[in-house]
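Narrative summary of target 7.
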Amino acid sequence: MLNHTKVNVSNGSLHIVESGSSQDPAVLFLHGWPENWSAYEQLMQLAGKKAHALSIDLPGIGESSMQSPPSTKRDIADCIHELVEALQLKCLTLVGHDAGGQVVFSYLSRYADELERAVIMNVAVPGIKPWEDIIRNPYIWHFHFHSIPNLPETLVTGKERQYFDYFYNIISAHPEKISEKSRSEYAKAYSTPSALNTGFNWYRAFYHDAKENNEILLTHALQIETPLLYLRGELESGAIEQYVEGFKEAGIKDVRGEIIQDSGHFAPEEQPEAVWKKIAAFMELES
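Modeled conformation, tokenized:
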């Protein structure tokens, strides 16, 4: 059973969905673009058997309402930290997919000592190897398009479902596993002008995110002991070793990279059982 609540934070509230017992170790899931909390619904059902599982709508998306939602991953991480403190989450594993994974990295860079573990899935982190290769890749055209002021909103408004469908169909190995219900839910979550703008602003913040993360590399500011698990779909392009090396160069000492078999970019929905099995093992829970 999933329990829906809202928690007040600075400038608004966050929509929280929970399963499992609050007495168990906590695992908090952060979604990416263009999705909402329900990207983890299947994982929540699995995780709730052994953990206190939580998934949220990121600030400004879906039912999380906020004036001037943050766009830099550092500011979103600060908002998530406020939530973690409000809920008094203990023994926390923070999990992020896509843009949510970029937020997890920023959270690690600021609050690593307050995490038991972290998981980043299916994403490159701005400023961290192999970011420069990613942004030069012409097949990743949407990073640049989404960064243009106003134009994406002008072209996508009223066509959210059709536009989002393109990505579900092209960069997943199993587009059929992103159900019609889910696709409609995601389109609804971004259907207001504010929410659509918030999602594109995550891309517009990439330059700022990369600058902050480059400063971490240049100053060798991080010496993080918190274990990090990096997951990547088997059918995604790029060698996972490059990503693991990038995180180690950023100062994360314990980085483990694993491949999700028969999956593309949307691993939490394409292969939820396999994803949870790897996270549960990482958390030292029985899967």
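The longest strand covers residues 12-19.
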